[in-house]
Amino acid sequence: MVNAVHETGVLMSTKSEQRKAVLREKLVHSAKARIERDGMAALRARDLAKDAGCAVGAIYNAFEDLNDIVMAVNGLTFQALGETVRGSFDGTEPPVDRLILMSHAYLGFAVDHTNLWRALFDLDMSEDGRVPAWYRAALGDLFANISRPLSELFPEMAEQELSLMTRAMFSSVHGIVLLGLQNRISGVPPEQIEQMIAAVLRRIGNE
Amino acid sequence: MVNAVHETGVLMSTKSEQRKAVLREKLVHSAKARIERDGMAALRARDLAKDAGCAVGAIYNAFEDLNDIVMAVNGLTFQALGETVRGSFDGTEPPVDRLILMSHAYLGFAVDHTNLWRALFDLDMSEDGRVPAWYRAALGDLFANISRPLSELFPEMAEQELSLMTRAMFSSVHGIVLLGLQNRISGVPPEQIEQMIAAVLRRIGNE
Question: Which residue numbers delimit the HTH tetR-type domain (chains A, B) (predicted)?
Fold first, then answer.
């Protein structure tokens, strides 16, 4: 549907295309603000239409469905998260320290933007082919930042093993942050999350 | 509200109490089957009432709200999860092997009962005092199983540090299982989840 719209768009007037691009940007801006404030589950098409000053039906001309809008918001979130993580280290630190700095930056982002961060993981992506290439690329950039210190720590690891370890490390830190922020389940007060991350990473780095 | 009902219940006829207990059991049984099949988000009061052959209003006489019913289902899930984890080792294994066996059992439970397992973590428990004592006790039992091999691995750790490491270990394995099962995000095919868990646990155990 989205592809069909884009292909037809080549034949449409530039003005109509521009109007649609402006509407798309308005809708994503509004969805981002609403998700940040109320969480993804509270997102309603009629509220977005009201914010953007358009009819509800116009949303489905600009996007396939609400999931597509959340995916666009997640793109912005991923970009901001990537910048936060990259800005947390300068590359001269010993590898375990760098992993801890990145993980603490990840925790900080999750604390500061909890609803946007949750939407990265809660968005339904159960259908095949729903994950855009740029989404996979952004994930790849994040993983590359984790792989570098890991390859310094474990120079003997083959690429495939390093790739698995990178995903395992990210998932471990994600789990500690996720259950730590839902502190009713993990039973750990938020201020101890940083300690937990550092303890696990130092053990893995054999320090 | 639930407490008020229970307190009033002491003055009610035994027959009325028994009827309510039967209804509660029917509703929990129905909710468990529906969550297992369709996930927690699809749970509707009118469907439960239909299954149990009662009016929708009767549900709110037996339980405070749908969350309370999900909490009761989560109690059964936690019990089953605990049995699965306890049944995965005999206690003679080296500690890292025991941690890996338990974690693989945890993964197996999550694969076999994905929706019930997700409900353990997705239930909204944002209000204070909504977590029953038996829920905390079940969580405590699970953590005790993790603490034992960890205390063998790290005999030098003080109790508070061991408690933090236990929660960090559980959260790490949970993160690997969670993102592994949502394989669109972690990019890891499910069959590699066991390898990731073992790799992280062996590193932590310094093997």
Answer: 21-81
